[in-house]
Amino acid sequence: MTNRSKNSKDVVDLIAVHGGACAKFDPSLAEDCRFACGTGTVESALTDLERIEKFNCGFGSHLTIDQEVECEASYMTSKNKSFGAVGAISNVFHPSRVARHLAHNNWWKRRRLLHPLILVGRGAEKYAVKNDFPTCNPEELISTAARESYDKYLHRMLHPYDTHDTVGAISINTSTMEAESGTSSGGIVLKHSGRLGHSCVYGSGTWSERRQYEEPLDEFSERTISICSTGHGESLVKADFCRGIAERVLEDEEGIMYSEIIRGYLREKMEPGARFGGIALIADKFRERMSLEFLIFHNCRYLPAAVRGRDRQIRVFESQFDPDNCTEDKFIIESFNMQ
């Protein structure tokens, strides 16, 4: 399950990947994120992580209380805000590919039918088979580590949020100012069968949007944001996490630092004690001038991430947070200029 390939012609200008909220520091996770950044696109980056059993997505996903794998994934592009997601899917190696296909499929439009945003369970699995995605026996997605984790958390009654969480990828093409974002997850260990996390919910797991603003002398500026999240799914859904943050960033006219906009949102919207994390890419363009910013924010012990800039150089981030020795906010926000 570790076959990897690169396709240089598909590499976008900016791409960032995170390996999910983690309870323990593991430098190998950040190195895997580094490689995923170089594979090309949001889809290929997530596909790469879905092959690696130490991440909670695809092969190696957490088990439900019934000892089954139920994966979920989402994809969004700023073009027409197209979105697709699948949930409670158990027989597909790469659910992120199915989510992206659902977002772009014009089958319903050609027949003047309602285009679904989310497919779950048997419906999602039938869709994958119909569209020739590689399928498998559900047992093939269960790793040894996932079984051991199930036994540990079931019998020792440890806190389930001490495990890995949803992975994500985001990108911005600085030539077109269009963006893509996606997530992939096995959900929380010991989750109830049929439970859907934030990855599947429009606006919670991911968001990509481009806006144009009218300036004096009939000129225009542009701003694009691509963002994805990880953490306590139910709390992220209630906060409308990614869309809520994106709207505040895109509506800002006062030049407030994006880190402060996100800080204000987290203070206001996140429930006390809820674990969360996210990464964002933001591009501002006026005439020939462009500013690019990468942000990572979370309140978990460790959030591994990597970002690839326009110079094709990849930077790795091993962002750590100590809740026992923290700021007044009880979370961390880091911002990096990507020029």
UniProtKB/TrEMBL annotation:
<dbReference type="InterPro" id="IPR000246">
    <property type="entry name" value="Peptidase_T2"/>
</dbReference>
<dbReference type="GO" id="GO:0004298">
    <property type="term" value="F:threonine-type endopeptidase activity"/>
</dbReference>
<dbReference type="GO" id="GO:0005737">
    <property type="term" value="C:cytoplasm"/>
</dbReference>
<protein>
    <recommendedName>
        <fullName>Asparaginase</fullName>
    </recommendedName>
</protein>
<feature type="site" description="Cleavage; by autolysis">
    <location>
        <begin position="165"/>
        <end position="166"/>
    </location>
</feature>
<dbReference type="InterPro" id="IPR037464">
    <property type="entry name" value="Taspase1"/>
</dbReference>
<dbReference type="Pfam" id="PF01112">
    <property type="entry name" value="Asparaginase_2"/>
</dbReference>
<dbReference type="InterPro" id="IPR029055">
    <property type="entry name" value="Ntn_hydrolases_N"/>
</dbReference>
<feature type="active site" description="Nucleophile">
    <location>
        <position position="166"/>
    </location>
</feature>
<comment type="similarity">
    <text>Belongs to the Ntn-hydrolase family.</text>
</comment>
<dbReference type="GO" id="GO:0051604">
    <property type="term" value="P:protein maturation"/>
</dbReference>
